[in-house]
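If you are new to this repository, start here. Below is one unmodified record pulled from the training split, so you can see the exact layout before writing a loader.
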Amino acid sequence: MTEGATLQNLTLRVGPALKAKVVSGRVVWKSGDPVKNGQISVYDGNRYVRSIKADNKGRFSFEVNGDFKYSIMAQVSGEREGESDRVAVTNESTNLTLVVKPK
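And here is the target side for that same chain:
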């Protein structure tokens, strides 16, 4: 292919659409109290993908696409700080509870 060249009768084949998985749950302190406005970090292996904010009752819900090896963890900063362990995302990752341990 060179600059200015054109293609004719091109057929582009793509694979099937990536399946979406719903991930939802709550972020709580060790005492069971909800974490207000905690951050959920999404990883693919060790690679950071994105962040989702939990609501003021500690609830979160989002979708991930594909069959990557996603994991999530909750992080809290501010007056009280802490983080949860990483949890693997599976096909049944709903109603998860991420327990934040103070730093």
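Two things worth knowing about this chain: The first strand starts at residue 20 and ends at 29. The chain has one domain: 20-102.
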